[in-house]
Amino acid sequence: MATVKQRPDTGDSYRQSKREMFVMVGLWMLMGIWVIGYGSQAAYSAENETPLRTVLGMPRWVFIGWLCPLLVANVFTLWFCLRFMKDEPMESVP
């Protein structure tokens, strides 16, 4: 087991991973609130629509409430992984 003096400094790595976690959890919560909130409200109001409004062959509320957030989350995740995430170098243990 390494002593305190032999342990590498993980401060930068920890702070970066914490930042990344808050961004991802924040996006997850935002998308979840949108899907559940918009989907539940729009689905019940679309129940009485005649004819049912569609976008790309699916009900409009499904397109806006589920497919759009899915696409936004996927594009954001791609950007996040390629541009935002950083690999912090770790010091080697002597």
UniProtKB/TrEMBL annotation:
<feature type="transmembrane region" description="Helical">
    <location>
        <begin position="21"/>
        <end position="41"/>
    </location>
</feature>
<keyword id="KW-1133">Transmembrane helix</keyword>
<feature type="transmembrane region" description="Helical">
    <location>
        <begin position="61"/>
        <end position="82"/>
    </location>
</feature>
<dbReference type="Pfam" id="PF06196">
    <property type="entry name" value="DUF997"/>
</dbReference>
<keyword id="KW-0472">Membrane</keyword>
<protein>
    <recommendedName>
        <fullName>DUF997 domain-containing protein</fullName>
    </recommendedName>
</protein>
<dbReference type="InterPro" id="IPR010398">
    <property type="entry name" value="DUF997"/>
</dbReference>
<keyword id="KW-0812">Transmembrane</keyword>
